[in-house]
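User: Hi! I'm working on a homework problem where we have to compare a predicted structure to a textbook description. Could you give me the structure for the chain below?
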Amino acid sequence: MATEVTISDFPEDSTLQKWFRPLIEHGSSFCASNLQTTPAFLRTPRVEFPLSVNAAEWDNSWICSPWNHYITYAAEEIDRATGKVTSRIASEVLRGIGAWFRRAELNRVVMVNNWLLSTNSWPAWEAGELREVIAALVDRWPDHAIVFRSLNPKESTPLMEELTRVRASLIPSRQVWWYEANSNAVARSRDVRKDISLLNRGDLEIVPNESIQTSDFPALTKLYNQLYLEKYSRHNPQFTGQWLAHLHRENLIRFTALRKSNREFAGVEGCFVSHGIVTSPLVGYDLTLPHQLGLYRRLAVMPILEARRLGLPLNLSAGVGRYKSLRGGEPVMEYLGLYDRHLPLSRRLPWQCIQQLSSKLLAPYVRSRRL
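Assistant: Happy to help. Predicted structure tokens:
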């Protein structure tokens, strides 16, 4: 008997209902001002996944836009990491590749399990019905590539193996840092102990989730913007205060803030527990405050403590690799699963280019540099 797979505009799962209801009612810009996508939901007898559906939307945040991820954001990263000459050459090369990718409609994608975050945890899914899932998606969106985000061998080995069996591609995306539940490496880390002492030093008030008010979110959102948009890239999701307040009100993300003696906020961190895995999708702090305060250290140890409290593994996402390694993190390559066999060759060729560049250049580079 064939597995029943359905696609709908509204989810059945209660957590998905809470998470996506305001986007369904008000549009995706309710979540982030640079986010344009149409949510949908795929159900099997075992699991239900959120989908993001796009056609072009070239100015979209990278969390829904492969073109932004591989062209615009990539150009910024190269510019930040290299000299002027290399950056200028890379920019010209990427401009040409980007024009090709536009003509090939790279952004015409359906992304599976996209919670509109940089890191999306996967359920313990054996993926036995993957062929039926792909058939349903291709039937509904025959002109779209099918993308499975945030795959890694710690969470999604069965799915990755099934994707290989159906001749999908696994494209290295980035290196994330993984902390096993009750990790001995974390327990032995002197740096973690120092960070905990710093957090508890008493010069900044620790404001727990229960004490944060809806009226606090304009200030907390500003702190996120300072770090992720102003310091890193405006192609990161530009989350709105109303979206973060919604996540807090529905108890979907647990926020912890740091507050100065004058009652102004100095930093904020948010933990999301999904499918038995802790992630930390929201961090921000006041970049004008002295570096000696160690705001990032205080905020980054919060999800480690939350994972320890819950006895769950932690995916601490990408970046700041040396810092996370010293605190017991294990480097794990994250992949993007791509099914595009139903598309014409002209649509598949850009993805083949991305796979070759990612496999031969990106993955070896981030592994060697422990990024």
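For your comparison, note the following. The chain has two domains: 6-175+333-369, 181-312. The longest strand covers residues 169-179. Good luck with the assignment!
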